[in-house]
């Protein structure tokens, strides 16, 4: 009589299928369009609202510090600031030396941010209702955890 080996009771290994980058970009496009449609009613793009919100919260702030806080390059920050400055919502004030500047929201910028914040909140509440609050909380937790792991490993500059 031969010994019979029992079938493995452990589940098969999970193997992700598809490209994570592509899937994330799909999600970002759909969610971004949702927010853009709502925040856009104020004349701001969602990216401009985010920048104006950071400036309102952190300002007056040096450009280099704002770029660090927002995890963007100085050139990207400069390019994104230009329309806000031209609209009169943000201004540059001289810093402690001739080479430094402080960035701050003008009173008009603070009012624009408040208007856009109401539209952003409407977009967020609609997304919460559509996806369900539990799924949104889980998504935020998964994103935060993933960012922390990738940041700890220094993988933000090219995964191999």
Automatic annotation (TrEMBL):
Pfam families reported in the protein's UniProt record: MarR_2
Biological process annotations from GO: response to stress
An MF annotation (GO) of this entry: DNA-binding transcription factor activity
Coiled-coil annotated residue ranges, if any: none
HTH marR-type domain mapped to chain residues: 17-148
Protein name in UniProt: Winged helix-turn-helix transcriptional regulator
